[in-house]
Amino acid sequence: MASGETEQHKNLKRLAALWASGQGYTCCGYEIALPHSGFRADVAAYKPAYESGTISFEGKSLRRRQPVIGTTAIFECKQCRADLLKDSCNTAKTRAKLKHLHDRRMVLERLLRVHFPSATNGDSLFQDFQTLNAEAINHPGYQKVLKNIATHQAGLFERTKFEKLIRYQCVNLCYLVTVEHIITDYELPLNWGLLVQRGDSLEVVSKPVWQDSPEGSRLAILQRIALAATRQISAINPPEL
Length: 241
Description:
This protein is an alpha/beta fold and 241 residues long. 39% of the residues lie in helices and 26% in strands.
């Protein structure tokens, strides 16, 4: 478990692992680094898969179930609305809003250069190319636009975890795990499933959309779950020197 997390968050992770186990995911791990993304999943799980195949044994052909790379899933646990929103920015909408704010800023700066000619930074020989000194202009509308731009840029570059994990196809299935009443249906990140805590168990509110995760990514998830389990065992029973 991650240090500094609340008991409620730990409990959501535990419930997610139990739910996954009940769905046939025989391998689960906490705080698993995801391939090609730079993100960690609160819980990652792997479900084995098999297919029928033919093997040769002592000159005979035998039909056997052969293991193949199975299904992977991740579970992101959110205990409050603020925790949820910090990862749920939508890139397309945010970019469109930033474009609108940028255009608005250009219009305001063009007008402000006329009314506040002394408020430029003097960083160009040409008046039209000089940048404005925002601190020197006490214009509420302009300050509000700058603040909104900063907010949306932070969202674009820092709060897109849900969207990116779908786009990167790190795993086959993505689940959001929450307590009750912190998210509405229309706020659910695109292609994510939703599991909501009801008492001591999780209830499926919305199913995720299947992602065609590459075999290499799925195998990497299984390997990292195994490594996490090995580290945990080593921490409990360190080898004798």
